[in-house]
Design goal:
This protein is an alpha+beta fold. It contains twelve helices and twelve strands. GO terms for molecular function: carboxypeptidase activity; penicillin binding.
């Protein structure tokens, strides 16, 4: 036996059709509004997702010796930065990013929050291998930018003289600081189109040109610099001295051939130069007693007049006691 078919009441059917038509009309009106009236907002939101203002790196000027040998050069490094708004949506990946960058989760979060709305530095001047590892993770919102860092071929031998460069590529001590205006580079900025993994696929616009630093040539003789440092370091060890300095000068021209200080530190080793005493140029930064300043001139005059010989020895039996010290 066939059951009688049930039909939707006419009033209810009209209501359902009316709701569907109304929903369609509202969606159509909304689409027309977005397409015709609010295009600037949509365009801006799209640009925020795919257009990034990124730094355009420039190299700091190199420092060379009198013979052209490099004393301070630029080597390849990478800077890692993030877009906080995008990275915030991928907090689940922060733990592995922190591990790769050798940071605690809290330190990583602080660095993300320390920047602006769309830009924050995480690491500067790190090894390219770290950048490759970060790129391999393919986390949206974190970017790897090619840059450079300063490398000193003679290491601790020239630290006191040349000084150091900070993470912002600015000289913080020594000649690096004294000639910073000449050596420093001025990075530019470019508006780039990035993909979903944050990799630059197209440069849309150069917002500011990059200006490279100028080279600086010194009168230093690298061999004299090396042996002066080795001799000074051995003397400090032998006499248990706290610190010392030595200067070799061409007396006919006034050119400085060597200028060394000890103790020193290796500026190429991360975290090695934290004590200011290890990178201070004692030859020019320390005050010397007037008598000590005149001694080299008295000795030079005695040698020039042949009054004494270079290997002559003097026995001092009656030192002068001043404030408990024997002079």
């Amino acid at each position: 036996m066939n059951r009688p078919e049930k039909y939707l009441p006419a009033g209810r059917a009209r209501l359902v059709v009316g709701v569907l038509l109304l929903t369609f009309v509202l969606m159509l009106l909304r689409d027309m509004y977005l397409q015709l009236m609010d295009t600037s907002t949509l365009r801006q939101q799209g640009q925020m997702r795919y257009l990034q203002s990124v730094p355009l790196p420039a190299s700091r000027g190199i420092i060379t010796a009198r013979n052209g040998q490099a004393l301070a050069v630029n080597v390849h490094a990478v800077t890692i930065w993030v877009d906080p708004a995008i990275l915030d949506k991928h907090r689940a990946e922060w733990a592995v990013l922190s591990q790769v960058l050798h940071l605690s989760r809290a330190a990583f979060a602080r660095r993300v929050a320390s920047g602006g709305a769309d830009y924050a530095y995480i690491e500067r001047q790190v090894a390219p291998s770290v950048g490759k590892t970060v790129q391999h993770l393919q986390v949206p919102g974190i970017y790897v930018q090619n840059t450079s860092r300063t490398y000193y071929p003679l290491g601790a031998v020239t630290t006191g003289l040349l000084g150091l460069v900070d993470e912002a590529h600015q000289g913080s001590s020594g000649l690096e600081r004294g000639y910073n205006a000449w050596l420093r580079a001025r990075p530019g900025r470019e508006l780039a189109l990035v993909d979903g993994h944050g990799q630059i696929v197209h440069v849309a616009k150069v917002q500011g040109l990059a200006h490279f630093g100028h080279a600086l040539q010194l009168t230093i003789n690298p061999q004299m610099q090396y042996w002066a440092y080795i001799t000074l370091a051995r003397s400090l060890h032998h006499f248990h001295a706290k610190d010392g300095s030595a200067v070799v000068m061409n007396v006919h021209t006034g050119q400085i051939l060597a200028m060394v200080s000890a103790p020193s530190c290796n500026p190429n080793a991360l975290g090695a130069c934290t004590n200011p005493g290890d990178y201070t140029n004692n030859a020019v930064h320390q005050a010397f007693e007037p008598g000590s300043v005149m001694k080299p001139f008295a000795v030079a005059a005695a040698l020039a007049s042949h009054s004494v010989q270079p290997n002559a020895r003097f026995n001092v039996f009656h030192p002068l006691m001043v404030d408990g010290y024997a002079i």
